[in-house]
Amino acid sequence: MIFIIFLIYCTSLGTGFEIKSIFCSISESCDCDYKPDIKGLEWDLYKNVYGQHMVQDIVSEAVGKFLQNENPDRPLVLSFHGASGTGKSLVSSMIGRHIYGTAMGSPYIHQFVPTLHFPLANRVQQYRSDLKRWVERNLTACARSIFIFDEMEKMPPGVIDVLEPHLGPFHVLFQTNYRKAIYIFISTVGQEVVNKLALESRQAGRDREDIRPDELEESIADAVYNNKNSGFYHSRIITEKLITRFVPFLPLLRRHVERCAQRELCQRGECQRADVASSLDPRAPVHTLSKEAALAWPLAPSFGHLSPFCPKSGLKRHNITPSAGPLWPGYNGPPPPSTSVSTPLSPHFLPNHPIIGCLSLVNVPSHSADEAFICMARVRPELAAD
What span is annotated as the signal peptide, if there is one (predicted)? Predict the structure, then answer.
């Protein structure tokens, strides 16, 4: 009580922010707009994340237990692994939305994109210093902060290791409680392990829902530790087992992609449209994007290795001016310039990509009723059925 009165007094003197920050970081009484909705998160995961039974179970259990514990013994550290388009960014935004009421708009949710924040491999020491200072400052302001590190496969090795002291079982260090924070790492490294098991299970006639996390977690940890392109390359975060859970995202099947497209239509008020699924080429598995997303594809470096083409010919040339919104959920970089491209793209853009995903993420203006037009990328036929 005396401390609270002192806090109010200091606020009138202009020093309240610093005192309040310290108080919030070590006290249970300051919630930093913290409004966890555990049931809402669980419902969202099971309703809107398709084909990811392990993700639904791991995330709902891990986040639920962590948020219900008023005094956790260590922070929650989740590492998402799988191909682009399988739901990693979607799930991370769900976590933010059901803790702070907004996907990425809260001042207590911090997202880092290596190509934007850590682009140069020769500045590792500077990045380490900047990252350490940023995390500690924001944990002092709010102990329940969420830190999301996207595209860990593009993170210069050594940068992320500066967080090792923050991820362990420390209670209060330099007046900051590190044990209430949530860290989410997102990476495509390890997707080969996930895809291989998914393919082998399918060939053996095993249901994908029978795949267990313990069949993949150790292999994923080895993959990120030994991959020179991984931000976790030879990282002590891996050897010290500071990751709470490795979360594998399976490749999607056709039925999951169709549901993803249908959800996108419903969000745009066009649930009644039945032509989307029928436009899928029955001879080839697909990636689905909105037509505008596919047209703007060359401007989205995060997805540059997945080159789409449209199976229908005769499409007109479109001038695409992306809106001021993010290129993908949580992206804080500058919007791309206007561009003009034709569809379909030429055949040399068709890689033999092994994954089916749902990537209608580019935020661009609507141009026609065909905004949910299906565009495709060639993938291995073993994963195409259903």
Answer: 1-16
Give how many domains the chain has, as a whole number. 2
Measured distance CA(291)–CA(293) in Å, rounded: 5
Element (H, E) at 247: strand 245-248
With beta carbons less than 8 A apart as the criterion, state whether 307 and 377 touch: yes
Q: What is the dihedral of CA 160, 164, 165, 167, to 10 degrees?
A: 100
Can you say whether residue 175 is alpha, beta or left, with left for phi > 0 and alpha for psi between -120 and 50 degrees? left
What is the model's pLDDT at position 5?
41
Q: Identify whether residues 62 and 137 lie together within a single domain.
A: yes
- Residues 134-156: what's their mean pLDDT? 94
Query: How far apart are the C-alpha atoms of 378 and 193, rounded to whole Å?
Result: 20
Can you tell me whether residue 151 is helix, strand or coil?
A: coil
Average of pLDDT values for 241-257? 93
Element (H, E) at 9: helix 2-12
Report whether 364 contacts 322 (CB < 8 A): yes
Please identify, among 211, 229, 248, the residue that sits at the C-terminal boundary of a domain.
248
Same domain membership, residue 281 and residue 241:
no
Residues 200 and 329 in one domain: no
- Kindly indicate the confidence band of residue 107, based on its pLDDT and cuts at 50, 70 and 90: very high
Q: 284: domain range?
A: 253-386
Cα 216 from Cα 82, distance rounded (Å): 11
Reported as a single tens digit per residue, the pLDDT across 333-351 is 444 433 333 333 222 222 3
Q: Are 383 and 255 in contact (CB under 8 A)?
A: no
Query: In the numeric block, which tokens belong to residue 62?
Result: 């891990």
Q: In this structure, are 113 and 215 located in the same domain?
A: yes
